[in-house]
Amino acid sequence: MPSTHLLKNNPELKENHLSSASGQSRTNRVLRYVSRAITVHATRGGVAGLPPTQPTRPSLRDRRYTIDVHNAALARPEDFPVQHLVRALNQPDKSCMEVDLPIQNMNYLKFPHPLRHRELYRVCKGESTFLELETSLLTWEDLVLITDTGQHSWMQDSSLNVALELLGLDFDCKEHGIVFANSFSGQVLWRVGNYGDVDGNDYAYHGDEKSLFRGKDFIFIPINDGYHNEHGDIGGTHWSLLVVNMITKTAHYIDSFLREQSREMEIGFTVTVGLSRIIGEHIGFEVEWFAPQQFEHNLFNGDCGACAPSVYYMSFVLVDQIRRLQDNGFGEGLRMVAQLPEGMGEDFRYWNFNSLHVRRRMQKRILEEKAFQTNTLAQQLTAKHDQEVLQDTGVEALDPPLDNLDCLHEFDNIDDHIDQAGESGEIIETEATKQTGVDEVENYADIFMEILEEEDKEKYHVGFQDDGFEDNVDVKDIIVGEDER
Amino acid sequence: MSDQGSPNQHKPEDAGSEHLNIKVTDNNNEVFFKIKRTTQLKKLMDAFCDRQGKNPNSVRFLFDGQRVNPTDNPDSLDMTDGDTLEVHQEQIGGC
Q1: pLDDT value at B45 more than 70
Q2: Where are the residues of the annotated region Disordered (chain B) (predicted)?
Q3: CB distance A288 to A136 below 8 Å
Q4: Which residue has the higher pLDDT, A265 or A110?
Q5: CB of B65 within 8 Å of any CB in chain A?
Q6: In order of start, what are the domains of chain A with their CATH numbers?
Q7: Domains along chain B?
Q8: Which chain B residue's Cα is nearest to A413?
Q9: Contact between B91 and A309 using a beta-carbon 8 Å cutoff
């Protein structure tokens, strides 16, 4: 006579018992989700639990998937056909002896939590930070502002810094002796150039800048005329560029709105002095008088020219030139980099420089990087999922995604990024989900609404409902149902 | 900014404590905050801006030369007792 105790301690007996409960215990697990609004019922085959996302070796047995989705009306218990209940109650008991344990039905597996891959659906709205790179970051508002032409659409330091850092990544500058400083480094250099070694310790507090600039061949520094206005509300109205050629030990000041003895030029010189002091080498300062000048027809309201796009564009042109010279072994040509010849301004016009196009390009590149980062995380989540699913099954994934599983170490606390499904299929709420779950689900709905055609929007409604997906989870789940008209 | 010369860097026993002393400076003012290792730096940023009468959107906080995310905390940035957050004014220019 099998007892509960015996079942617990005898896997074979337990397996037999479960087999009598379900003829396809290993392949016919059922996933079910029932709420007041919707019922989803899925049966599938597989080793156990959730299926992997990759082909496996040995290949898993053929699986068939059946997914039934009932809308709100059918899901309500009162609408459930009574004859089904009667039929269930009249099921003959398979056990023939009263001493046998009652047959336990297989537990339903719960559907994976819809937020488990929320990184896939993460969108920027509502996030404080849209994109974060090694040294710079920008917000959604900064990103939008890049291509805005409204009255207050100045180019933010965040946007220019991120765009320049991405430019450095695109040209593999780190490995080729080129460094893009950000505007904050520029301001630090300006302070050093203006105040000198105020602490009297040989700039010991500027170790980061020393290691950043020393040993480099080319240094790009965005210059803002607000560097000297450290205590005002807003710094600056103009961007210019300082390109330091360390092969010739010369700093080239490139300004798209060049005026003699301007404040910006003076700031560029002070930054050069600061750089000389920090790296301990004398650097000359030259103004590039033939630098391309900005066009007045590219104005946005309240500005006198597209200086930030000019800085970005000139950086692109020069770093492209440097990399071409390096790749082709024209070492001597590198000495001429950033020396802009007479007629450059006129040529610039022939290059079809258009500040709006440049700004769109900056924005597009930032969006691409965001997509790459998001995709990378999503692939890591997929890899983690497959690892968990195939664990202890003797089955390996044929085509492990994205640099295999080694990449997982990049996220030490990857579990903060994913909702975990325990052995029982229960959803374990993470702290991160508690904080952000609702917003992200709402964002998901935003995406969904964008995907729907206009006529579909009239036909369907997308809403949220607290439907007890998990009793202790304070998130709202998306439901999609027919309009109740 | 490097934390060389930190007055508390010779106190390794503080490394594992729950609270940290963080200096926030805009090169003109210095304000010290004592915060938990797991507290989001947004609180500290807001407190500094509130005290200095600055708009949080018009300043940038940097640690070790890297822009600080408001959702970062001392643990995520590997901060130690006595570390400094630099405050830079927002810079803008023509678009």
Answers
A1: yes
A2: 1-21
A3: no
A4: A265
A5: yes
A6: 129-360 (3.40.395.10)
A7: 19-89 (3.10.20.90)
A8: B76
A9: no
